[in-house]
Amino acid sequence: MTADDLRETSAALAGRALELPELGQAGTVAAYVSVGSEPGTRALLDALHARGVRVLLPALLPDNDLDWGPYAGEGSLARVQHGGRMALFEPSGERLGPDAVTTADAVLLPGLAVDARGMRLGRGGGSYDRVLARLERAGAHPALVVLLYDSEVVGHVPEEPHDRPVHAVVTPSGVRRFPREP
């Protein structure tokens, strides 16, 4: 994708996501800053912040768990290199602890793909598996939303016993919802 394609995709993705009632009614949204070829999240983060939504962003811990910090605009981000992996943009201010995610009304999850059942394929580091397990242990039930390109919504992804389905996937062309488990 060209830089213009990425900007257009990011704007379309933000527009679709902002139409979700789950985000429109949220007081707190846990999100992430896209990197590399991931669908762009910056426009969405800025729009949520401008609405007065408390946006929490992850900071990767040495054991691949996630700590959380508040987003206060682009100036509140720091580029952090984690060993031989890609650099991430993380909140530069106060750290709220791994349990801060349990206060979120909606959690935006990165992924490589989502299938027709709502199962998400991550990058394999387990960071968001830990987030989902933490939410479950806390009895928290935020909306779980994955942001992807249209081509990343597929028929089937591999699944492990600890995997949990998401509630919706947002792509530049639309939203697909999945039934919530009782």
Automatic annotation (TrEMBL):
Superkingdom of the source species: Bacteria
InterPro entries in the cross-refs: FTHF_cligase, FTHF_cligase-like_sf, NagB/RpiA_transferase-like
Catalysed reactions, as listed in the record: (6S)-5-formyl-5,6,7,8-tetrahydrofolate + ATP = (6R)-5,10-methenyltetrahydrofolate + ADP + phosphate
Entry cofactors: Mg(2+)
MF GO annotations: 5-formyltetrahydrofolate cyclo-ligase activity
Keywords from the UniProt entry: ATP-binding, Ligase, Magnesium, Metal-binding, Nucleotide-binding
Annotated EC: 6.3.3.2
Pfam families (alphabetical): 5-FTHF_cyc-lig
PANTHER family documented for this protein: 5-FORMYLTETRAHYDROFOLATE CYCLO-LIGASE, ATPASE INHIBITOR/5-FORMYLTETRAHYDROFOLATE CYCLO-LIGASE
Record family assignment: Belongs to the 5-formyltetrahydrofolate cyclo-ligase family.
Name this polypeptide is given: 5-formyltetrahydrofolate cyclo-ligase
Organism expressing this protein natively: Streptomyces massasporeus
